[in-house]
Amino acid sequence: MSEKGLSLLAKLFQNSGEGIMLFNKNGLIESMNPRAEDIFGYKEDELIGKPIEVLVPEKVRHSHKTDRNSYLENPKSRPMGLGLDLKGLRKDGDTFPIEISLNYLKHENEMMVVAFITDITVRKQNERMVKEQQQKLEEYANELEKKVRNRTSELEHMNLGLQSQIQERKLAEQALKKSLVDLKQAEQEILASLEREKELGILKSRFVSMASHEFRTPLTTILSSANLIQRYSESEHQNSREKHIGRIQKNVQHLTTILNDFLSLEKLESGAQKINKSVINIKILIDEIIEAINPTLKVGQRVESTVQPVDIMSDEYVLKNILINLISNASKYSSGEDVIELTTHRSNGLLSLSVKDHGIGIPVEEQKNLFERFFRAANVTNIQGTGLGLNIVKKYVELLNGTIDFKSAEGKGSTFTIHLPTHIAE
Ligand code: ADP
Prior knowledge:
5-stranded antiparallel beta sheet, alpha+beta, 9 helices, 12 strands, single chain
């Protein structure tokens, strides 16, 4: 090497940023550059001839010696940063992390080892700091995640609470609505029962006036006839006796009819009136009724029937009562010479049966009240009656799933028509 080269090398040795040390095959330090002095805190003079282990922490000194010997037996270049965790020992006793690369050379036939040393305290510190910060960051992230989790579960909890509150409120609202409905219903029931009571009051007074009127006349007749019979003791009075006995019988019969009407009404209202279905031939039924009713008609009155022999499935007892009632009214509210006409008409599974008279008729303004209990029109005050018959008839017709209507003109007559299904539904 040229002299310049040698001088440059010497400068390089002196100024190198890495510590450079030379030691011989016995591990004794031969030379070191100023950076190595800095690193270990010794002056070169203090170390020349000293074993390299002076710079090795005590607890690894022994193994270092062994490593060093095996290296010298088989020397080769060893680069820096082999991942070895090496420590150096400074003069002041401090240990510190270092990186070492080893090389060997021969000088004057003697093997020499060159160690390049880097103090990596700062790097290690930085690494530690980075690690610590990373750890802190991780902890922070974990903490954050935990907080988010807690908050989420808190929110979920709150949400559940809110949901159950909403549910409770909804239930409360429903309960409130229901009690409002109940209240309304109760109010309506009270009103209805008040209405019923009022109606009942009206009915009672109507009943009292009807009963006092309707019962008094026959009872007076019965009493006077009975008194007279008592007086007709002679046998020649037999005719008069029989006449009064007849009167008594007729009036008792009338009272019985009224009482029967009450019973029918009571039975209908309580729902006790049941339906017994059977096949009825309408013509046969009407003929029977006419035969039974004939003796009660006014003198000169007659019933004419054009009723066809149709079979219907219905209740005979109920149907008979309806027709007797309508025919009796036709007779009662007509004069002696009038004809009562019975006709039938069939269409769409319905049988219509009409009872027509040519009697006094019903005033138009009163027709709307006709089926009310105890109702009697103003033009019948001189004729006996309770005002119950049509009310019963209407209820009977409804029991047979039928309807009733009428046409009437005052002074001309009335026609009452019932429309019945030919088969009563179950
Ligand atoms: P009642 O004959 O005992 O008075 P109803 O209930 O049978 O009772 O009749 C109620 C009222 O309807 C009668 O009072 C009468 O005013 C009127 N009415 C019923 N049928 C006839 C009819 N065929 N002609 C005229 N008015 C009638």
